[in-house]
Design brief:
By secondary structure, the protein is of the alpha+beta class. The protein folds into three domains: about 55 residues, no CATH class; about 80 residues, no CATH class; about 80 residues. It has eleven helices and five strands, in the order H-H-H-H-H-H-H-H-E-E-H-E-H-E-E-H. A hairpin with a 2-residue loop joins strand 1 and strand 2.
Length: about 240
């Protein structure tokens, strides 16, 4: 059964957004989506360029990436909508649900570190005299993160600020954050009657935000405070994440 044309177009837009606004070549598209040439060639289009054009990418714009001010505007709008600076998981979700929103990798490549991004974001908002709330968020972030972080999900992981951990004691699981997962395990172990075991840790430069993400995701399983009665599927979902 042929793959629906609208689905292919949506995937072209998504992969382009994750690549800084540049649409993929046919081989890159296959690697990213699993959609083969035989799924569209002679069925929906004769040439790949026709598919890209129908997805909204003209021949003159195939190599065009996001302008820096456009990136800052999109980030500011999202931050204003959230009421906080977005964390990695929120950026990824935004990209998946909105093909016009750039990927976190795009912000990484253009700004290198989150501190650079926040600094330029504040300056941009001041210049256009908009997003006063975002300016305050940037100033608050800068005052507490100076020289301490890199952009979320940076692939080389050269700035390990903290951890969000999943630990088990008896039948219940604790989700918390710490700058030292091993030290936190020791501190908790001496307070609990049953043996404590670390199940998994996630490196992050936003421990508080990522901890809140998992607390909210598992809110229906909360027992007391940071303790949860998790299913095997819940635990597997947490363990799939290495960095957020």
């Amino acid at each position: 059964m042929p793959i629906d044309k609208e689905h292919i177009l949506k995937e072209i837009k998504r992969t382009a957004a994750e690549n800084g606004g540049q649409p993929p070549g046919r081989q890159a598209f296959l690697r990213e989506t699993g959609i083969r040439e035989s799924d569209w060639l002679g069925i929906h289009w004769v040439r790949w360029s026709e598919a890209l054009s129908e997805a909204g990418f003209s021949a003159n714009s195939f190599q065009t990436a996001y302008d820096k001010k456009e990136l800052l505007k999109k980030y500011a709008e999202f931050a204003s909508e959230l009421g906080r600076l977005p964390v990695d998981a929120e950026l990824k979700l935004r990209t998946r649900t909105n093909s016009d929103f750039p990927s976190n990798k795009t912000f990484q490549s253009r700004f290198s570190t989150k501190q650079n991004l926040v600094s330029e974001l504040a300056q941009y908002c001041k210049e256009i005299q908009q997003f006063d709330t975002v300016i305050h968020l940037c100033e608050a972030y800068s005052s507490t993160h100076r020289d301490k972080d890199s952009l979320e999900s940076k692939v080389d992981g050269d700035c390990e600020i903290g951890f969000v951990y999943l630990m088990r004691s008896g039948r219940f699981y604790k989700i918390g954050h710490s700058n030292s997962a091993g030290r936190r395990e020791y501190e908790l172990a001496i307070q609990l009657p049953e043996k404590l075991k670390t199940i998994h840790t996630i490196r992050t430069d936003d421990p508080v935000g990522i901890e809140a993400y998992w607390h909210n995701r598992f809110k229906d399983s909360r027992q007391n405070g940071e303790w949860f009665d998790l299913s095997a599927a819940d635990i597997s979902a947490f363990k799939r994440r290495k960095f957020m």
